[in-house]
Each structure stands twice: as C-alpha cells, then as structure tokens.
Amino acid sequence: MKTRLIAVGMLTAAACHPLKKEEAAATIHPQGDTIILPAGSPLQQKLSIQEVRSAPYSRQLSTAGTVRAIPTQYAEIAPPFQGRVTRSFLYLGMKTQPGTPLFEISSPDFIAAQKVFFQEKTQLQQAERTWKRQQDLLANGVGTQKDLEEAQTAYEVEKKEYENAVMAIRIFKASPDQLSLGQPLVVRAPLAGEVIDNKVVMGQFIKDDAAGVATVADLSAVWIAGQVKEKDIRFIRTGNECNIDVMALPGVLLKGKVYHINAVVDEDTRSVSVLIAVPNPGYALKPGMYVTVHFTDQPVSALQIPATALLQANDAPYVFVAVAAGRFVKRTVTINGNNNNNVVVTAGLQPREKIVSEGGFYLPAIK
C-alpha cells in the first residue's frame, strides 16, 4: 500500500511540473524498456542519479497483544482448610511481603491438629522422663537392661509421632513453637506484592474447595502476550527488543524484550503466542489491557533505495537503471519492507548499480 502511495505522489509531482509535448518528444527516445536522452536534454536537469548500496536493515512486525500478570508474581489466596473468618487485615492496595498476615479463620481441622500436637508433645516428654529414669536405675544397679531398652524404644516411637504432629501444624503455615491451643488459623501472603482483589467478609464460612477470596500480585513487571501469525514467527527471536503502544496511554512508547515463544500454534487463529517482559514501575500497565507490539528483528545488511526512486505500473514496482550517460533501462524490482525514507529491495538490482533516485516519473510520462 505504501508503495502505491509513493507512486501516486510521484505522478502528482509530475503533473505539477508539466513538460511541453514538443519538448518531451524531442528529448525522449523509447526503445522497448530503454529510454535514451540525447545530450543537452532538459530532462537531464530533472533527474537525480544515485548508486545502489547495502545498509543495515531491521525487519519490523506489528501485532495486537494483551497485558498479563507474571504467574510467579501472582497469587489467588484461598485457605487450604475450611473455616470461618474471625478477623481480616486485608484492604485493597495493601503492600505485602512473604508471610504477611491477611486474615484469620477458625478452622476445625486446625484445632484438631493442635490437639494432636499438644497430646504428642506431652507423651514425648513423659517417654523421655521414663527413659532417663531407667538409665539412672541401671547406673545405680537397681534397673534392668530390658526395662531400659523398652523405655528407649517407647521414646523413639513417641518422638516419631511428635515429629508427625509438628509437620501437620506446619501444613497450616503455623509455628509449633508459638502455638497455643484454640488459636485461629492465620492465612498469610505467599509473595511480596499488593492486594489487588479482596472478597473476604467477616464471619463468612470458607470451604476447603472454595475459589480464591483475595489476590496478591507484584505488578512491577508484567508480560505482554502478542499473537504472531505462523508465517511471521520465523522473524521473532528470544531476546529481541520490542516497542509497545498502549491505547490507554496515548503518546507513551514502552520497551520490552521477547521472553518466550510458545512451541504450539493456536489452531483457531493460526498464530503463536509470544510473551514479552516489560518493566511496569508505575503500574501503568494493568492486566487485561490491549496493546500493539512492534517487533524489531536483528539488523542485517540489505539493498536499499530511496522511496522516491520507486515507480508503479500494473501492480509491478520498477525503477530506472542508469546504464550509461543519458541511457536508462526500466527494471522491475521486488521490495520487502520500509526503512525510514528507503525501501528494501530483495530482487532486481545489484550493489553499485546506478538508478534514477528522483524525477524518474518524467521518463515514462510520454509514450
């Protein structure tokens, strides 16, 4: 589309600088695809000649994308065991660290685990005292080896049962050393971040299979999921830099890097999801936002010519190659991409060939 617009612009320019028919006929001698201008032709002054050269070129590709929270920095909070909410510390925007208390619930499962813990702790202490007493009795000649061995075995069994009870308490994210019988279960934040959703209601009963009642997320960095068509995925590489336009932030251009390229093609859209890691220090990017991602490939050397050199006829772009003084050959070219005011040529020209870079529209103006 850009190529056609360029050609139309050139033809418009030609209309603004008309030549008299008699003058043009006297200065243009077409021979097939070759046009010859005799020495002294006034058209010579209207043509600019430039040598074809290679220059660095980075292929660009644009696609739609959406903002996502990074899974490892996002957590939906739900207690692992059922219970009734007795206290809440939650509020939207609350900053958290790993272990920050969020709310308390009275959990029958937690109470049962506490009872088992304190029971096993008492039995372990009793078994330890019995074992030490048998050691003292044997040392003073009034005990037997059999009684000592039985006491030691009982102690080791109780120790194992106590360790199991401690592990049961730790499942609730509670500390056995700071435990008191009947205390509520404290649900804590698993990561550093901010409370972005809170559905906790005082007195509500939460089942163990309930959905999350609160959400904690660290949005200082986010992912953007861009959808790249399968025919273009070969141009995307991990680590490539991207520019991102956000509809909600007009005039702001953000930068990110390709973090991951999905290994599977979506069969419905025939596209591949590409994740871009983007810093988000001001939390301007919010999960769910729509964005436009501009991918930029690694620069490669490519033949480039000024856009003003390109002409169009029957949907086939062409240029005029200056093969000698006053002698120009019409040459069809294949283009693939734009680079500022230049176009990339992939076929039809060779390095160091000379072309008409400006004014070429004068040459085919008279048939």
Describe the structure in your own words.
With 367 residues, the protein is α+β, with helices and mostly antiparallel strands. It has 3 domains: 2-58 and 300-365, conserved putative lor/sdh protein from methanococcus maripaludis s2 fold (Beta Barrel); 61-70 and 219-296, Efflux pump adaptor protein, beta barrel domain (Elongation Factor Tu (Ef-tu), domain 3); 74-215, OB fold (Dihydrolipoamide Acetyltransferase, E2P). The protein is 22% helix and 38% strand. The protein contains 4 helices and 25 strands. It has helices at residues 2-16, 21-27, 108-139, 145-171; strands spanning 29-31, 34-36, 48-51, 53-57, 60-69, 74-77, 83-88, 95-96, 101-106, 185-188, 193-198, 205-206, 214-217, 221-229, 241-246, 253-261, 271-279, 290-296, 300-306, 311-313, 316-324, 327-332, 334-339, 342-347, 354-358. The strands form 6 sheets. It has a 6-stranded antiparallel beta barrel with strand order 5-14-17-16-15-18. Strand 21 (316-324) and strand 22 form a beta hairpin. Helix 3 runs antiparallel to helix 4 (145-171).
